[in-house]
Amino acid sequence: MGRRPVGVRDVAARAGVSRQTVSRVLNEHPEVAAETRERVIAAMAELGYRVNNAARALGTRRSRTLGVLASDALQYGPSRSLAAIEARARGAGYWVSAAFADAGDAGAVVAAVQHLVSQGVEGIVVVAPHVQTMDALDALQIGVPIVTLHASGRGARGLSVDQAAGARLAVAALADAGHTRIAHLAGPADWLEAESRAEGYARELAARGMPSGPVIVGDWSAASGHAAAATVRELGVTAVFSANDQMALGLITGLREAGLDVPGDVSVVGFDDVPDAEHYWPPLTTVRQDFDELARRAVAAVIGEAAAPRDPVRPVLRARSSIAPPRDESDAAAC
After folding, report:
1. Structure confidence at residue 328 (pLDDT)
2. What residues does 269 pair with on adjacent strands?
């Protein structure tokens, strides 16, 4: 027969205090003498006592747990955000409980949220929401604080890196190098981030008095970027803004296989600044997102810190070696 788990009664007996005193220590009640608190903590350590968050939540309405709802967790942005949220939550004294749902299935999104709420989470962070995810959340009465990441500013509860501003940085870098025929390799249409990056691309071209360039839709994968290389060659553009680094990697490989040099024939800029971007060949110029800062703001907002900032996080251009002036400058200027 297994050994009975250590409980509050055992800790109270070892420390020579009442069970109520142990509960007060667990709940960080201020009216406990320092010497008594230290004796209770020492007894917990000696006995190997572990806090039962579910039971604690019933008595205190505090589980010290945050919920995270995610989809597409294998993509760089969502996975990096999950890791950053967990680290920030732990630093603030919270655990994280994660639920994953198909973003295209409103029922799955609702069920995942309800599951997190049933676990007694004190707030929920939604990572990389799609349009359908946001629609499902808007119809819910959740009862706990909720913050959405990467929603590109949609709704008062949204936090994000300024995706449109990042896209404009990318297009500006290409235009400043002399390019006037700039294509956009876009992400999937149901992603709010992809939509905002496409809007930023169009705005920067318009602000410079340049015609809107061709848009090629990918699916975030390097394979879709590789497939887009043939279209880029047919279009005769001299530069491409890729909505993420993985598609940029595939595009560069495809262009090379088609006999085109990057950046000699076609310049390429990505988005995200994945850890490998500086080791691509050529090293990729890209837009960096500060996921750690975004996670800090998300955790602060969901646990109710009054000073939690809500303004978009500014992206930064990482200039490397994948941009060069167009080879035929007179032809580029004439278009």
Report:
1. 66
2. 241, 285
Q: How far apart are CA 257 and CA 253, in angstroms?
A: 6
Kindly report the pTM of this predicted structure. 0.77
Integer Cα distance of 235 and 182 in angstroms: 10
Residue 296 included in any domain: yes
State the DSSP code for 44.
H
For the chain, percent of residues with pLDDT exceeding 70? 89
The beta-strand segments (E) located in 22-121 are 65-70, 95-100
Report the side by side order of strands in the sheet with 158-159: 95-100, 65-70, 124-127, 146-149, 158-159
Residues 154 and 170 in one domain: no
pLDDT in tens, 223-265: 999 999 999 999 999 999 999 999 999 999 999 999 999 999 9
Question: Structure tokens of 151?
Answer: 């929603």
Number of structural domains the chain divides into: 3
Is residue 137 included in any domain, yes or no?
A: yes
Question: How far apart, in whole angstroms, are the C-alpha atoms of residue 114 and residue 124?
Answer: 11
Note whether 151 and 180 are same-domain residues. no
